[in-house]
Design a protein that fits this description.
heterodimer; A: 43% helix; B: alpha/beta; TIM Barrel; 9-stranded parallel sheet; globular; binds pyridoxal-5'-phosphate; amino-acid biosynthesis (chain A); TrpB-like_PALP (chain A); Tryptophan synthase beta chain (chain A)
């Protein structure tokens, strides 16, 4: 049976719509509009035109042999979502949802953001479509991703720092949901990942699955066969679902999701949701989550703002439960070392999020041996992370003020 | 919806007496576990007919700033789920008003839906108000509440279709919680006109017990809501009074709000 036809609301025992009744009408409206759009050639044409001439799709694949020397000699091929306009995979999904926003006649969009990449993509689409735009971002993240805050503001969006709870992505989602409940009549919520209530997990995956569709063809053309493994980082899980989806029915292709281990999956300072969490309900869906005995969400930790989330999309929980994909933790330090290694061996500075997938691929290559080919989703570029990297590797000259 | 619940009979008695019910919300553990118990008792002694006890939760998407601040503080002070049952039991020993627990869904799931129902019933609780659980996702809770005989209060929103309103009415027992306005909890200057329309639509779908919540903070608003609804729910205003002036202030506000019931009767 194909694993590629899941349309929600449930993926096995995961998913659903655990939201206040006040949001159901909006979710129903979105589901209906998406159902129509999905089958409308005009929608596909409009999205394809933007993806081609605005985003720059298809994104290329790049083989990285000097990096691969550190991975036991396995072939490593990167899918270059970092080259997309706005610098990450997030724009693929945002443009789809922005066109939908227009179709349902709403004039204001809101979004949550962690690393700021989804916020930047949403602010970009809002500028392009002439929509009012408000972005919710945890205060901790506005500090560690200050460059992206400036980008969003330059694009005309209002950025609201969220000071509740852990002041990171999960709290930004809470605040965006509160805004949506209040302003739902004219506001659409452009959700950034494959989590949340139905229809978001299936819809966001559909907008991201182009990554895997392109990459599958590109790898076949380059190597004459399918990769042995596909690797991606997992925050909410959108870039991972995006690259996994085309391969779900290729049983010989192993799928690996790399979660943010933080200071270690065995420590409290982690964001490795599937590795150490258990099923529960958060942000509208039943899925794995980091929680205490009472079901209170536990604060996550990752050096990467985009992966610093105690939940994960329900389709990943399902893929984990049926053992179609494996999920492994990667520590902050392993990710940072991989970030530096790719920069030095290949001249590509990845986002810290994506560096988790690179670090995972280094180990995977050693396990699978030199005959293996590993496709890695390079979900974004590292420009936004320069301050964190500079501090981590002590790259700013002592005494010289260079900011 | 059956009328066998204590909550429904309390509301019915108030309506028959010519006014309607006053429902008061408080989070457990704020300003302390004992403080919340004393405050709940004070509310009932000052004219609140039904208690809605909120269980503090890490991600309360339906709550505005006042309730968020109170529940975050309760969590920081070490609130545990068990404290909810402790509070229900302690309050039930002192006053006879029905006590509903308002809780987000995940804590119930983690505790175990059946186990939660059993312990709530054993503590003397009347049932649950579930702000992020729609009837569509509630089968385990429908079964458990049926088995134990607990009330289950689902929400209805101005944006809900008639079919969905009917679903809420059919699934609810005790009352249906009509969300007065599109939005989260917090005091508002005007209780939305949308509430009046919503209550009317709920009646058409068979509701015989409807309480309006969100945005109600004054006796005048209580009176206004009771003109067309069976109960008025006050939350943020009580929590604010409790935070600012302690149990005494919460009791005074309750007494003041309860005058709204007299106003409604004379209207
Ligand atoms: C470059 C990049 N990769 C990955 C992620 C994580 O999101 P997801 O797991 O939905 O792909 C983010 C989120 O901000 C990101 O910016």
């Amino acid at each position: 049976m194909s694993l590629r036809t899941e349309a929600g609301p449930y993926f096995g025992e995961f998913g659903g719509r655990f939201v206040p009744e006040s949001l159901i009408a909006a979710l129903d409206e979105l589901s209906a509009a998406y159902e129509v759009a999905r089958n409308d050639p005009a929608f596909a044409a409009e999205l394809t035109e933007l993806l081609t001439n605005y985003v720059g799709r298809p994104s290329v694949i790049t083989e990285v042999p000097r990096f691969a020397e550190h991975a036991g000699g396995a072939r490593i091929i990167l899918k270059r979502e970092d080259l997309n306009h706005t610098g990450s995979h997030k724009v693929n999904n945002v443009l789809g949802q922005a066109i939908l926003t227009k179709r349902i006649g709403k004039t204001r969009v809101i979004a949550e953001t962690g690393a700021g990449q989804h916020g930047v993509a949403t602010a970009t689409a809002a500028a392009l479509f002439g929509l009012e735009c408000v972005i919710y971002m945890g205060e901790v993240d506005t500090e560690r991703q200050a460059l992206n805050v400036a980008r969003m503001r330059l694009l005309g969006a209002e950025v609201i720092p969220v000071t509740a709870g852990s002041r990171t992505l999960k709290d930004a989602i809470n605040e965006a949901l509160r805004d949506w409940v209040t302003n739902v009549e004219h506001t659409n919520y452009i959700f950034g990942t494959v989590a949340g209530p139905h229809p978001f997990p299936a819809m966001v995956r559909d907008f991201q699955k182009i990554i895997g569709e392109e990459a599958r063809e590109q790898v076949l053309a380059l190597t004459g066969r399918l990769p042995d493994a596909v690797a991606a980082c997992v925050g909410g899980g959108s870039n991972a679902m995006g690259i996994f989806h085309a391969f779900l029915d290729d049983q010989d292709v192993a799928l690996y999701g790399f979660e943010a281990g933080g200071e270690g999956a065995g420590t409290p300072r982690t964001a490795a949701t599937i590795t150490v969490g258990r099923p529960g309900v958060l942000h509208g869906a039943r899925s794995y989550l980091l929680q205490d005995e009472d079901g209170q969400t536990v604060e996550s930790h990752s050096i990467s703002a985009g992966l610093d989330y105690p939940g994960v999309g329900p389709e990943h929980s399902w893929l984990a439960s049926i053992h179609r994909a494996q999920y492994r933790p990667v520590t902050d330090d392993a990710a940072m070392q991989a970030l530096r290694l790719l920069s030095r061996t290949e001249g590509i500075i990845p986002a810290i999020e994506s560096a988790h997938a690179l670090a995972g691929a280094l180990d995977l290559g050693r396990e699978l041996g030199p005959d293996a080919t590993i496709l890695v989703n390079l979900s974004g570029r590292g420009d936004k992370d320069m301050e964190t990297a500079a501090r981590y590797f002590d790259l700013i000259d002592e005494g010289a003020r260079q900011s | 919806m059956t009328a066998t619940s204590a909550t429904a009979s309390t509301i019915r008695a108030r309506v028959d007496a010519g006014s309607g019910a006053l429902v008061g919300y408080l989070p457990v553990g704020f300003p302390s576990l004992g403080g919340s118990i004393d405050a709940a008792v004070a509310l009932v002694e000052n004219g609140v007919d039904i208690l809605e006890l909120g269980l503090p939760y890490s991600d309360p998407v339906m709550d505005g700033p006042v309730i968020q601040a109170a529940t975050q503080r309760a969590l920081a002070d070490g609130f545990r789920l068990r404290d909810g049952f402790t509070a229900v039991q302690a309050i039930a020993q002192q006053v006879s008003a029905p006590i509903l627990i308002m809780t987000y869904w995940n804590p119930v799931v983690q505790f175990g839906v059946d186990r939660f129902a059993d312990e709530l019933a054993a503590a003397g609780g009347a049932g649950l108000i579930t702000p992020d659980l729609i009837p569509d996702e509630a089968s385990t809770w429908l079964d458990a509440s049926e088995r134990v005989g607990l009330d289950r209060v689902f929400l209805a929103a101005p944006s809900s279709t008639d079919a969905r309103l009917r679903r809420s009415v059919e699934a609810s027992r005790g009352f249906v919680y009509a969300v007065s306005t599109m939005g989260i909890t917090g005091a508002r200057a005007d209780v939305d006109q949308a509430a009046r329309g919503l209550v009317g639509r709920l009646r058409e779908q068979g509701a015989d017990s409807t309480c309006v919540g969100i945005g109600i903070s004054t006796a005048a608003q209580v009176a206004e809501v009771l003109e067309y609804a069976d109960g008025a729910i006050v939350g943020s205003a009580i929590v604010k009074a409790l935070g600012d002036g302690g149990v005494e202030a919460a009791g005074e506000l309750a007494a003041e709000l309860a005058t709204g019931k007299q106003l409604a009767r004379s209207a």
